[in-house]
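Quick one, tokens below. Sequence please?
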């Protein structure tokens, strides 16, 4: 998870990072 956070942080801002992470986690759980 730490590695993924680093990638997201480098590509997007902290605010978008949190939203993207939450969306990815929810999508993963739904799948």
């Amino acid at each position: 998870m730490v590695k993924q956070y680093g990638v997201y942080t480098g590509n997007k801002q902290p605010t978008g990072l949190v939203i993207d992470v939450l969306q990815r986690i929810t999508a993963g759980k739904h799948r």
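The mean pLDDT is 67. Helices lie at 2-11, 14-30.
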